[in-house]
Amino acid sequence: MIIPVRCFTCGKLIGDVWEEFARRVKAGENPGEVLDSLGIKRYCCRRMLLSHVEIIDEVLRFYEEAEKRKEAKVYY
Amino acid sequence: MWSVEIVEVEVLEKDERNVRLLIRGVDVPFVNALRRTIISEVPCMAIDEVVMIENSSILQDEIIALRLGLIPLKTDLDSYNLPQECPCKSEFGCNLCRVTLTLDVEAKEETRTVYSGELKSENPEIVPVSDKIPIIKLARGQKLRLEAYARLGKGKNHAKWQPVSMCTYKYFPKIEVLSKCDACGKCVEICPRKVLAKTENKIEVRNLMACTLCQDCVEVCPQNPPAIKVEHEEDTFIFSLESTNALPPERILTEAIKILDKQFNEFEEQIKVEKGEES
Predict the structure, then answer these.
(1) CATH fold group of domain B8-41+165-242
(2) I need a labelling partner for B96 at 20 to 30 A (CA). Which of A25, B28, B165, B205 fits?
(3) What SS3 string covers B14-71?
(4) For chain B, what percent of residues have pLDDT higher than 90?
């Protein structure tokens, strides 16, 4: 759904680097190198970021749409 | 009886998060006791109870509360007490054993992310270690208002109270290249940590600390018995520790030793009482 705060296995804080990781990977950088530069060494923490999908963005779309419709109703 | 000879500690690496020590003159039970104390007995601060005032976000109250709990908070061990040791004896807590954090956010214009930096703490010292941890995403019109109570706790009760994300030790390696070695270089090739190196007609140990005692170099050696010996020192350990930044790593170590010392004293007292009862 949303990026977990900590690594499931070791408990290292990984939530705070997700956005930078996602941005840099989208910009075309090699994910492995980005993880190295962010100081994520262990493979348990690396898989947290590598395998993560932000499904919350997909779910939120429905709410954004509902809000738009409500607005349109008020408008007419 | 367990006797302590001279214990030597050397700092190999140190920064604000990690510490790597070389400890000489101790045995496995001692370093393991130290490791277990750090993981399960050293207290640190974490959000323990959350009162939801309003939550119209798409995540359930429980999920948000769990996420808040896992956020590491900078801990001040000197001015706060463990709830069970606090003189207030109150289940709810007092100023000496509880910190209140509040969150009041609303997505007014468009979808936005709420970060840990938006948590308002009543004590400016007790704040999340990072301001950039996403707590939740809100679509327009959604609101989240809550009050969270942070308390000191121990890792044995919940992993959120663990001050470390890694705490391990390993034996200090001892590698010996025997004189019958003909420097075929097979051990250099197979070593996954690049511990060995070949110089002219000799095999040399380059990076002893990196050795994981995997014995691959011994197995690959064509000579029988092998011309290389990989062993470990019985009383020397490499102790590494990675803090979650709730406490500085050196504070975690000193605190662990204090707790260990207290526990040993309590144990000794109990034995004395037992003996007294017998006689």
Answers:
(1) Gyrase A; domain 2 (3.30.1360)
(2) B165
(3) ECCCEEEEEEECCCHHHHHHHHHHHHHCCCEEEEEEEEEEEECCCCCHHHHHHHHHHC
(4) 71
Assess B137–A contact: CB distance below 8 Å, yes or no.
Answer: yes
Residue with token string 């070695």: B181
| pLDDT number for residue B1 | 42
CATH class of B44-161: mainly beta
Domain limits, chain B = 8-41+165-242, 44-161
What distance in Å separates the CA atoms of residue B51 and residue B60, rounded to the nearest whole number?
13
pTM, 2 dp: 0.87
Percentage of chain A modeled with pLDDT above 70: 100
- Please identify which residue in the block is written with the tokens 């409500």: A70
Q: What pLDDT does residue B4 have? A: 57
Identify which of A7, A60, A67 has the shortest CB distance to residue B137: A60
Which residues of chain A have a CB within 8 Å of the CB of B136?
2
